[in-house]
Amino acid sequence: MPERASSYASEVDWAFNFVYWLSVFFFALIVILTVVFAIKYRRRPGVEPDNSITHNTKLEVFWSVVPLGLVVVIFWIGFSGFVDMRTFPKDAMVVKVHAKMWSWTFEYPNGVESTVLHVPLGKKVKLRMDSEDVLHSFWVPAFRVKQDVVPGRYTYLWFEAIKTGTFPVLCTEYCGAGHSNMLTTVEVQEPAAFEAWLEEEGSGKNLSPVERGKKVFNLKGCAGCHTTSKDKKKLVGPPLYGVFGHDVPLLNGKKVLADENYLRESILDPNAKIVKGFTSPSLMSVIPLKDKELDALIEYLKSLKD
Ligand SMILES: [Cu+2]
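Above: query sequence and copper (II) ion SMILES. Below: predicted holo structure tokens.
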């Protein structure tokens, strides 16, 4: 089990362990008795089968009532835990979660957006989640919480973190080619550090165009399909390191010089020029961008070079 970082993690583990060890016990009991009886009552020469016993009421009531009691206990543990998870505290901080192929974005009450979920320690946080394309599922193993994120409606989740640190966040609903890359983290901070982070992000500290572009790149989910590192690893879309200023081979056999206008066109109309080695029509959706964001994005792409 991953470490327990939310208020109901230990309850979930307790329920899991209870069911697990109960199953181990009965599995062993049944297998051992089956083997023992098969040997003890095997057919032997000269021994006639005795069919005089048809049933034993006391025994049958016993082996019906005991398992019934056990499953009622399991239901009770599971249902009360479920009710806790689905009863949303009124005083929780609400963070909006936007899922898309293949990235997560988190939006705070003051408008700050982040690709990492920051939450304060010991405070209740409610997530309001939506998807702009297909079914995704938000999962934080360390919090023992999981909830589908469905296009066309909001779904909700709440938790209270009890441990500071960084914990993985996964998409656990197969959502296409980049699914396994739909990862981020949740950062649990002391309340004061969290407030400081939120304020600093909200104040829009002076970022350079390249830094702003990098932020847009992450927030708009570009990183889910395009790598920007020197190793030029290929994900769903073309790697972007060292593209600017060079010829790009296209699917139609031609070449194009990657200048600012090529970058702009490819961002706004992904189908205009498909890069060699990628499918047509393009898997990229058109991402709404303000002119300033587009400009910053192009500055960032230009900076990806030696
Ligand atoms: Cu997904």
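Residues 209-302 form a domain with the Cytochrome Bc1 Complex; Chain D, domain 2 fold (CATH 1.10.760.10).
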